[in-house]
Amino acid sequence: MEELLRTALGVAGAAGATYADARIAAPERYVYLAVRDGAASALTDSQAEGLGVRVRTERAWGFAATTELTAPAARATARLAVRLARAAGRHARERLRVTEERGPTAGRYASPVRRDPFEVPREEIIELLRTAEGRLHVGPDVKSGVASFQAWRSTKWFASSDGAAYRSEIVHVGAGIAATAVRGGLVQRRSAPTSFGGDYAQAGFEFVAGLGLPERAERVGREAVELLDAPVCPTGRSTLVLGSDQLALQVHESIGHAVELDRIYGSEAGYAGTSWVRPETIGRLRYGSPLLQVVADATEPVGLGTFGWDDEGVPAQRTPVIESGILTGVLSSRESAAQLGLARSGGTARADGPDRSPLVRMTNVDLLPGELSLDELLEDIDEGVYLETNRSWSIDDKRLNFQFGTEIGRRIHRGELGELVRNPIYAGMTPEFWASLDAVANRSTWHLWGIPNCGKGQPAQSARVSHGAPVARFRDVAVRGG
């Protein structure tokens, strides 16, 4: 693999590239297993491999890829990447600028895996899923149940003409359960540990076993049935408390994507828009209340956005994003960081495979915990609503106006969690919503949630990222029942 990388870089340099990097994935593997209504309903076990070569001339980038891991294919791919860069350069208005990077640019990174999920017998996984799914069926109103498991392995070799070189082997796993209850015209769904197929981490099968899906299942099924009899969430402006899992998605959609620097500059707009943040406001924009503290941390243990180096060879790092409500940092690549005048890249340029060129992608974007216990956070709420587990989301192409629905809600009355409410929805505008943040719970409520399906780019790319979040309280938020 290293010889193929050297071959590609040498040919690119000889063909006139001022810079080149090359990535090999060999192999990328994905497994998906599911049990639905007592029977195994899905099995996917796929592998892919390939080589991607990215080059830079004075004015433009060029990228090409191949699935053939041979020296002739590496040479042809490098030459094609240079030709594409030259063609693009004829239409460039100015020269490209990138940051000069220093630091550890070579080594090896491996996920902390105690039990390789790809070595666990399929029968053992299916039995775990079958047991958990069976316990969802607490009564005749539970018409459907599903339990699922996913695992990814990415083995990567990287080298650049700047001297960066590394090998990484990253393993992600996740699992979850969901029950659907139906009565008449009402349909209610309840998921655990959260929606999107459950929770995910950079770890081995020990993480899945530790989720306790069979032990959670009966409560999940029971809550799905109870929601059929619950009143619709009341409509009006209310004090809103978000559970950790829903707050993690709120961070993802209204902060994480909005502070990706290519979106801020408008160079990435096609898949899901740009950002309401303007470049000149970085460092002084009030994003939310003084309680809002957010970091991007690619060094966080077990995070899906954790790695040794990004796909430009920049070491993983922890970057403050919002400090006391002020936007102080962004997610950046070497090119976008240079455009802003930063001394170095944020190390967040990643691609979802060797056939894609790197984009600015979230790492682990976390909302830091506060000091209050959950009881202390609730105690001065006269009337409010507590929401958790995302059901639906909608946000505009500048990450400004949003609406989220959750699977479940509970009324808060005089500091106590009360009756269930169904079909809750809340809405707002990003800066106003985060300005309404007036209490953040402590570490005991904080959890690092994995999100396996973040989309961006054209051609489309999917990334897996994590977000840490506690429980938090917001005042005067628009809430209604769907």
Please report the number of helical segments: 10
Could you say which structural class the secondary elements and strand pairing correspond to? Answer: alpha+beta
Domain unit count: 2
Radius of gyration: 24 Å
Tell me roughly what share of residues is in helical segments: 10-25%
- What are the segments in which pLDDT stays under 50 over at least 5 consecutive residues? none
Principal-axis shape equals: globular
* Biggest β-sheet description: 8 strands, mixed
Mean pLDDT: 96
Strand content: 35-45%
Span between termini = 54 Å
Total strands: the figure is: 23
Folded structure, characterized:
The chain has 482 residues and is of the alpha+beta class. It folds into 2 domains: 2-229, PmbA/TldD fold, CATH 3.30.2290.10; 236-481, no CATH class. 22% of the residues lie in helices and 40% in strands. It is built from 10 helices and 23 strands. It has helices spanning 2-14, 71-89, 122-135, 205-210, 213-229, 244-256, 261-265, 334-340, 374-378, 430-435; strands spanning 19-36, 39-56, 61-66, 106-110, 142-160, 165-183, 186-192, 199-201, 236-242, 294-297, 318-323, 326-327, 349-350, 359-360, 365-367, 383-395, 401-413, 416-421, 424-429, 437-440, 447-456, 461-469, 472-481. The strands form 5 sheets. Strands 1, 2, 3, 4, 5, 6, 7 and 8 form an 8-stranded mixed β-sheet that branches. Strand 21 and strand 22 form a beta hairpin. Helix 1 (2-14) runs parallel beside helix 2 (71-89) and helix 3 runs parallel beside helix 5. The longest helix is centred in the first third of the chain and has 19 residues, at 71-89. The protein is globular. The model has no long low-confidence stretch (mean pLDDT 96).
